[in-house]
Structures are given as structure tokens and as C-alpha cells.
Known about the structure:
Blueprint: E1 6-8, H1 13-18, E2 22-24, H2 39-53, H3 57-72, H4 79-94, H5 98-115, H6 121-137, H7 140-158, H8 163-178, H9 182-202
Antiparallel strand pairs: 1-2
Amino acid sequence: MSNTGLAVRGVTTMLKRISIAVTLACLALWPTYTSAQGGLWETYMAAATKAYQQGNYPEAEKQLGAALKESEGFGPQDPRLATNLNNLGELYRLQSRYAEAEQHYKWALAVLEKALRPAHPQVATSLNNLAALYHAQGRYAGAEQLYKRSLGIREKTLGPEHPHVATSLLNYAALLRATGRSDEAERMETRAKAIRARNAKQNPVN
Length: 206
């Protein structure tokens, strides 16, 4: 996977239906939260995904905005609100609307820290999103702090051999290379490759 490219993360069929799936390599997608009352929200999210996939960013933003109004009604700590905010942040980032992207990423992070706990794996994902934004802007000190915190959460909650830990290591390594610390980057890359190799051996693809 390219350190600077975009990647589509593997998700369930339902998640594909309601989430924008194109992100920086560091971004894992959000889980799906549904309820009888959430039908209209899901409809807006599905419409946003369709518009995004067609390259119609204004329509995607319109649909995400409508979904946001719905998700705000679920309560300030509902994970669907974080999903909505994250996807708006990603849409803004792709259009280089960095101030708006940062605002929505930070809001999503705040929701998750309250709804779950500061050391939850989804919080680590949110930290990675914001770190990727800072990285793209050349705000390396802020990005490193966030990458480091995200990596620590994933190691603690998922285990040091989890594939998401390998992803975090590669993201962090890309930042280290951008700041001239190639030796540190190489160590992280070597560890990430070893994790992925062990996971591939344990879970071979037929």
C-alpha cells in the first residue's frame, strides 16, 4: 500500500451502503449503527455514498448535511453522529477544505471519546483521521502526537500483532520519513511487515 495513496478499507455490505469508503491509508471505516428511527439517516447516507462515487461532491455534501441533522437528533453521544461527522470531514479533506475537515474530524473525535472511552479502538481510528489531515498539511508535530496516541491505543486494546497496529506503524513511518528520520521509519516498517506476514500465514486466502 502506498504511503501517500488512497485506500478503500474492507467493510461489511451494510457499512458500504452507508459510509464513504475512500480515505487515506490510515483511515478505517466506522461500524454501522441502525435502529427503526434511523431509516431516514441511512437513506441520506446511502444517497451521499452514491453521489460521492459518481464524483458529485456538492450532492454528497448536501446529503451528508441532511443526514447530520438527523443524527443530531439521536443525541450528542450517538456513534452515528460520529460516523456522519467523520464522512463530512473526509469529503472536505478530499476537496482541500482543510479547516472544515479539521472541525468535523475533531467533533467526531469528541463524540467518540464521550460515547465510548478515550482508549477505544474507534477513538484510535478517529485520531488517525485527524493525524492524516495534519500530515497532509505538513503539520508534522501535531500529526506525530496523534499517530503515537492512536498506535498506543491499538497496541493496548487490539494486541501488538493486530493488522490495525501494522497500519498505524506504516502511517507513523511515513511521517518519520517525511521528517528525515529514516532509521526510525525503517524499524516501524519492518515490524509492520512482520505483523502482516504472520497474519497472512495464520489466515491464508484461498
